[in-house]
């Protein structure tokens, strides 16, 4: 049974394309509409069968959809949410940005007469990018964190949760500020560290002997350093306060390890590694 007449996806990268394909595969709408400012991407999305109708004007997408998913970069999603408030304020919509508090606050301020919004963050993704890497199975077995605004209606929250369940995901609710604080440690700061690890090696990367010594450990640890630069710049800036706190904590822990190394304290280092190993195994 179709849940919607028309689902609109704004932003046709890996995540937006995967949402469109998942909705198509599960038969969640009569048709899928897509919006992006790049004509080439719209054409590619149509040719790949990701979307049924394409729009280069966001207002056209809004007027032709009864449920819109904002899958553009965070700052763009914020501006698109403001546009919805002017074009079609009672449209059902969500966003899939990796930080939630900014857009939740934006919606609370922009929709003076109420809204039908609830934030979403699928804990799924890839270091790959582009509509051509879209995957209809991306959300199966994954968790989507639902972040309502203070004045989100319960029926809106439940409808958006049901949409994600229909893609194969499970859902959990969380306040947007709590989400951003936790994700700074579980996702955003780890990406920053991966970028730094590659940066540290960059001056020696052209040495044949260095390349010989790059094994699975380095590749596994830095896989996410191949992630999209625009997306991650936006994430770092929008969640900077929480990431800065994580950096401060990391610096203190790094100082402690530095001291153990300077003292050549074998037993303390071993105990520290054993403690971390136990925590990692529990995860």
Shape, please? Answer: globular
CATH C-level class of the largest domain: Alpha Beta
Helix content: 40-55%
> How many structural domains are formed by the residues?
2
Report the end-to-end length measured between terminal Cα atoms.
38 Å
Poorly predicted spans: none
CATH architecture of the largest domain: 3-Layer(aba) Sandwich
**Rg measurement, Å:** 21 Å
In oligomeric terms, what are we looking at? single chain
Number of strands: 9
Judged by helices, strands and strand pairing, the structural class is: alpha/beta
Proportion of beta-strand residues: 5-15%
- CATH topology group of the largest domain: Rossmann fold
Quickly count the helices.
12
Under CATH, the homologous superfamily of the largest domain reads: NAD(P)-binding Rossmann-like Domain
Average pLDDT: 94
Question: How would you summarize what this structure contains?
Answer:
The chain has 283 residues and is of the alpha/beta class. The chain has 12 helices and 9 strands.
Could you walk me through the main structural features you see in this protein, from its secondary elements to its overall organization?
The chain is an alpha/beta fold and 283 residues long. The chain has two domains: 4-174, NAD(P)-binding Rossmann-like Domain (Rossmann fold), CATH 3.40.50; 179-282, 6-phosphogluconate dehydrogenase C-terminal fold, CATH 1.10.3660.10. It is 54% helix and 14% strand. It has helices spanning 14-26, 39-47, 58-63, 74-87, 101-110, 154-166, 176-201, 208-212, 216-222, 229-238, 240-263, 266-282, and strands at residues 4-10, 29-35, 53-55, 67-70, 92-95, 116-117, 119-122, 143-147, 170-173. The chain has a six-stranded parallel sheet with strand order 3-2-1-4-5-6, sandwiched between helices. Helix 1 links the parallel strand 1 and strand 2 (29-35). Helix 4 (74-87) runs parallel beside helix 5 and helix 7 packs across helix 11 (240-263). The longest helix is centred in the middle third of the chain and has 26 residues, at 176-201. It starts with a strand and ends with a helix. The model has no long low-confidence stretch (mean pLDDT 94).
């Amino acid at each position: 049974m179709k849940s919607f007449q028309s689902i609109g996806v704004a932003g046709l990268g890996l995540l937006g394309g995967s949402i469109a394909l998942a909705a198509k595969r599960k038969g969640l709408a009569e048709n899928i509409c897509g919006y992006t400012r790049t004509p080439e991407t719209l054409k590619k999305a149509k040719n790949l069968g990701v979307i049924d109708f394409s729009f280069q004007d966001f207002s056209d997408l809004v007027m032709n959809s009864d449920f819109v998913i904002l899958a553009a970069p965070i700052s763009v999603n914020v501006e698109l949410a403001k546009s919805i408030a002017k074009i079609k304020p009672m449209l059902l919509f969500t966003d899939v940005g990796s930080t939630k508090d900014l857009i939740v606050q934006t919606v609370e301020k922009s929709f003076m007469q109420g809204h039908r919004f609830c934030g979403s963050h699928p804990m799924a993704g890839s270091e790959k990018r582009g509509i051509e890497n879209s995957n209809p199975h991306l959300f199966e077995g994954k968790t989507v964190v639902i972040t309502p605004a203070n004045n989100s209606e319960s029926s809106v929250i439940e409808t958006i949760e049901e949409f994600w369940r229909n893609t194969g995901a499970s859902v959990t609710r969380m306040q947007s500020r709590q989400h951003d604080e936790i994700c700074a440690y579980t996702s955003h700061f780890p990406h920053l560290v991966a970028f730094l690890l590659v940066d540290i090696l960059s001056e020696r990367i052209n040495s044949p002997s260095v390349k010989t010594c790059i094994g699975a450990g380095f590749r596994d640890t830095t896989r996410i350093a191949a992630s999209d630069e625009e997306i991650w710049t936006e994430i770092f800036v929008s969640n900077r306060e929480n990431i800065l706190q994580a950096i401060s904590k990391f610096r203190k822990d790094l100082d402690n390890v530095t001291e153990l190394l300077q003292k050549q304290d074998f037993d303390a280092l071993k105990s520290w590694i054993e403690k971390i190993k136990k925590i990692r195994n529990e995860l």
